[in-house]
Amino acid sequence: MDQELKELLERCKAEERSAQAALYSRFASKVFSTALRYTDSRDEAADIAQESWVKVFRHLAKFTEFNSFEGWVRRITVNTAITHYRRNLKHRYHEDVTETLATPLDLAASKKADFTMEEIQSAMSALPKGYRTVVQLYLVDGYSHKEIAEMLGVDINTSKSQLSRGRKQLQGFLLNMARRAQPQPGLPHSDEA
Amino acid sequence: MKSPLENMPPLEQGETPWTAAEMQVREAMLAAEVAAPADLESKVMKALDATSAESVGGAAVKWVAAALVGSALVWAALGGEPEAPVVVSPQQEVPVVVQPASPVTALEEDQTQAEVVMPPSHEAELQKEVPVVSPESDVAMESPARMQPMEVMSGRAASMLEASSEGQLDLQHDSAQPRLERRPATLEVKQ
């Protein structure tokens, strides 16, 4: 951790308002983008981010410099987002899942990756909410199946199967984007050399 | 050189290996920075102020409540009388207003306390259970009580007879009820 951040955190622990504003400015876009990964609306992401920031400032004394501050903030944001997700799950109607699973050939094709940020975000948001949440938690934020099961209140096997299906759908979407980008799609070649 | 797979979460047995696309997804997602709404900072700071005010306010309310309870206890211990209704615990003594006994109660006490010795013939009559006959029971049931002769009704305690002679018993009867025929009775009381 750099010295500047360390001093900033100490001032934040003393509830110095200017330090809190500086810390917010430094990580605001990270926190907001993390919140946005777990929801479909910017308004809800803003609510999640606001709640996360309050938790960050309130529990700053618990943070030790042995951890990565960014990782600590991200975990708080993810936990807050999951709380929102579970709360909203009660009011959500059943999602129709259109299975666009990738074939083994597609999987080989997706090994050759060159996607833009927009394509990746588009593919992720095309996933059904349940699959997307598990893929985000496992692939992006690095939670284990056991942790995901506890966070979402589901069985470990449910987490595993949702990850497997989510991964296949994600690769299917990405491959479709890659094919659309190429005018004459041939059999994609493997990158394994 | 560090392999990109080392940054990927470990996969469990049976799961397909991470693809390059997934690695890129992970990297892109973790690196993503989306500008937060402009008003979010002020909302966060307001929420912080609100939570700190809540915690300070909550503590203040607790202190005020504790002070009020404490002062009330001290005041009560010094012998003050509350104007407002006070909840009394079961252990505390509550003053009870005792009302004078009613005439009927006094009469009943007289009945139980009077020691009257009667001749054996009268005692035998008194042992008999005298059914009470009311107009309602007349209508309601056809009991043998209705068939009791009037003489049986005369077998009453001496105190009751005295009371009836003084007109006290009439107070207990409904004016609508049929009046009983009064007969002169002789009573020998042994000294």
Main sheet properties of chain B: none
Judging from the principal axes of the Cα atoms, what is the shape of chain A? Answer: globular
Fraction in helix of chain B:
40-55%
Proportion of residues in extended strands of chain B: under 5%
What's the alpha carbon Rg of chain B, rounded to whole Å?
46 Å
Q: Number of helical runs of chain A?
A: 9
Distance between the termini of chain B: 131 Å
Calculate Rg of chain A over CA atoms.
Answer: 19 Å
Average residue-wise pLDDT of chain A = 84
Quote the beta fraction of chain A.
Answer: under 5%
Structure characteristics:
heterodimer, A: 193 residues, mainly alpha, 2 domains, disordered C terminus, B: 191 residues, 7 helices, 0% strand, elongated
Would you write up a description of this structure?
The complex is a heterodimer of chains A (193) and B (191). Mean pLDDT of chain A is 84; it is low at 93-102 and 189-193. The two termini of chain A are 39 Å apart. The longest helix of chain A has 26 residues, at 156-181. Chain A has 193 residues and is mainly alpha-helical. Chain A has helices spanning 3-13, 17-37, 42-58, 69-89, 104-109, 117-126, 129-140, 145-152, 156-181. Chain A folds into 2 domains: 3-89, Rna Polymerase Sigma Factor, Chain: A, CATH 1.10.1740; 104-181, Arc Repressor Mutant, subunit A. Chain A is built from 9 helices and no strands. With 191 residues, chain B is mainly α. Among the domains of chain B are: 41-74; 104-169, no CATH class. Chain B contains 7 helices and no strands. The model of chain B is unreliable at 101-116, 129-155 and 163-174 (pLDDT under 50). Chain A binds chain B through residues 15, 17, 20-21, 24-25, 28-33, 36-37, 42, 46, 49-50, 53-54, 57-58, 107, 110-115, 117, 120-121, 123-124, 136, 138-140, 142, 144-145, 160, 163-164, 167, 170-171, 174, 191, and chain B through 8-9, 12, 15-16, 19-26, 28-30, 32-37, 40-41, 43-45, 47-48, 51-52.
How do the helices and strands line up, and which of them pair or pack?
The complex is a heterodimer of chains A (193) and B (191).
Chain A: H1 3-13, H2 17-37, H3 42-58, H4 69-89, H5 104-109, H6 117-126, H7 129-140, H8 145-152, H9 156-181
Helix pairs in contact in A: 1-2, 2-3, 2-4, 3-4, 6-9, 7-9, 8-9
Chain B: H1 20-31, H2 40-77, H3 103-113, H4 120-127, H5 135-140, H6 150-153, H7 158-165
